[in-house]
């Protein structure tokens, strides 16, 4: 039955993202067709689970909770914690108006739209987790695969397809603002569903979605802050759960005993933090942007495959002998060379540059507005991973 469910979910995703938007009026599509699809899926899931004798609505795998009295209450508290962090951030960074209408009719329509999708998706999640975790073998893998599936379903395909592969900044922003937080939330929802059923994950996601859809004001956050909250708050939720419960485990005598806590929470926290730091560094969010060295013009100082950190500083602080990154009119990639000379003309600074391995300075001076920053640190050879990966993609016709 699970294979049929996967086909149904894939069909709904394709209809919602590729078919219906092109042939059906926006209002009818959003508030009639889509809810009907999710309701049909809900009915099918309920029929499947009843025939197989599976309780997907609610169960409790823990015998003691320190956060709430049961998984559902814990999910509500974690969802409330997530919203509280957003509100506190809004108090600091400011609020903006909600993009949604608050006319009574529109509120009712949005409730119908949100609830139909939420219930259909979470019942499907609970069913797949219940089927895939009947044995403890590969528990973490099964939960992660289910989380990955529903993470993919949560992505709007048009957002992904409109990304320009030649422009890395929007891609990095999309990964940090959308990809990593959505997967973090999906992973926590899947874990909660494993512990307490569909009602538990509905409680967690329902709190977050209710705030997003029905609060008249929303935090006006920079995408980096929103990404940080969307990633680390679910990771903290994992830690809270892992440290506040005891899992039911049968002994040969029919009693229960405390089982060692899963390392899933700690592992996800580490992965989330590392991924987010990588994304933030890639766009210079921490004031230094990594760049791979692709040529040998700076050998012996910088070799092919090295990674350098480029820090944006005022151009009047750059001195002769500094290594800078800059853009030229005839080069697609930025150039990294050493400053050979500096002169001023018409109140503008110009930098004469030279590669350490070159015999002569570069023919054209660099205007100060074309300077990206100064190299402040070198990491040897790690960039070869990027070079090899990029070459592989180029060979199969994918240009980055």
Keywords:
400 residues, 11 strands, 2 domains, 7-stranded antiparallel sheet, Umud Fragment, subunit A, 14% strand, 11 helices, alpha+beta
Characterize the structure shown.
This protein is α+β, with helices and mostly antiparallel strands and 400 residues long. The chain has helices at 2-23, 26-52, 71-93, 104-132, 139-154, 157-161, 168-196, 198-214, 223-242, 264-282, 384-395; strands at 62-65, 95-97, 217-219, 245-247, 288-292, 307-311, 323-326, 335-345, 348-354, 366-367, 371-379.
| Overall geometric form | elongated
Strand order of the largest sheet: 5-6-11-7-8-9-10
Class by alpha and beta content: alpha+beta
Low-confidence stretches: 248-262
The helix fraction, in percent, is 40-55%
Order of helices and strands: HHEHEHHHHHEHEHEEEEEEEH
Number of continuous helical runs: 11
Main beta-sheet strand count, sense and barrel state: 7 strands, antiparallel
Strand content: 5-15%
* Mean of all residue-level pLDDT scores: 81
**Number of strand segments:** 11
Please, how many domains?
Answer: 2
* Cα-based radius of gyration, to the nearest Å: 26 Å
Distance between the termini: 41 Å
Write the layout of secondary structure elements.
Blueprint: H1 2-23, H2 26-52, E1 62-65, H3 71-93, E2 95-97, H4 104-132, H5 139-154, H6 157-161, H7 168-196, H8 198-214, E3 217-219, H9 223-242, E4 245-247, H10 264-282, E5 288-292, E6 307-311, E7 323-326, E8 335-345, E9 348-354, E10 366-367, E11 371-379, H11 384-395
Antiparallel strand pairs: 1-4, 2-3, 5-6, 6-11, 7-8, 7-11, 8-9, 9-10
Helix pairs in contact: 1-2, 2-4, 3-8, 3-9, 4-5, 4-8, 5-7, 7-8, 7-9, 7-10, 9-10
């Amino acid at each position: 039955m699970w294979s049929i469910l996967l086909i149904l979910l894939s069909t709904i995703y394709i209809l919602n993202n590729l078919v219906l938007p092109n042939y059906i009026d926006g209002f009818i599509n959003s508030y009639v067709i889509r809810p009907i699809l999710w309701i049909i899926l809900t009915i099918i899931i309920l029929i499947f689970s009843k025939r197989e004798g599976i309780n997907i609505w609610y169960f409790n795998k823990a015998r003691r909770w320190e956060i709430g009295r049961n998984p559902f209450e814990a999910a509500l508290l974690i969802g409330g914690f997530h919203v509280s962090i957003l509100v506190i951030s809004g108090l600091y960074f400011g609020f903006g108006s909600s993009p949604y209408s608050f006319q009574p009719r529109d509120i009712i329509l949005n409730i119908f739209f949100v609830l139909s999708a939420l219930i259909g998706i979470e019942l499907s999640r609970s069913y797949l987790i219940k089927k895939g975790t009947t044995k403890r073998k590969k528990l973490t893998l099964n939960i992660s695969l289910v989380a990955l599936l529903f993470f993919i379903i949560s992505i709007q395909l048009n957002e992904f397809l409109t990304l320009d592969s030649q422009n890395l900044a929007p891609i990095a922003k999309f990964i940090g603002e959308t990809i990593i937080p959505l997967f973090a939330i999906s992973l926590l929802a899947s874990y909660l569903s494993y512990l307490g059923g569909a009602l538990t994950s509905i409680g967690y996601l329902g709190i977050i979605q209710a705030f997003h859809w029905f609060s008249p004001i929303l935090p006006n956050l920079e995408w980096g802050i929103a990404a940080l909250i969307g990633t680390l708050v679910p990771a903290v939720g994992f830690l809270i759960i892992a440290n506040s419960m005891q899992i039911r485990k049968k002994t040969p005598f029919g009693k229960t005993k405390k089982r060692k806590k899963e390392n899933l929470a700690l592992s996800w926290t580490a992965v989330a933090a590392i991924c987010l730091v990588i994304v933030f560094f890639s766009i210079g969010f921490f004031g230094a942007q990594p760049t791979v060295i692709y040529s040998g013009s700076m050998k012996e100082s910088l070799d092919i495959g090295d990674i350098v950190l480029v820090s944006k500083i005022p151009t009047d602080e750059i001195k002769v002998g500094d290594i800078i990154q800059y853009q030229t009119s005839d080069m697609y990639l930025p150039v990294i060379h050493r400053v050979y000379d500096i002169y001023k003309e018409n109140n503008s600074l110009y930098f004469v540059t030279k590669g350490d391995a070159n015999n002569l300075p570069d023919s054209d001076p660099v205007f100060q507005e074309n300077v990206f920053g100064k190299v402040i640190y070198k990491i040897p050879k790690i960039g070869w991973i990027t070079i090899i990966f990029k070459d592989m993609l180029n060979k199969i016709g994918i240009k980055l």
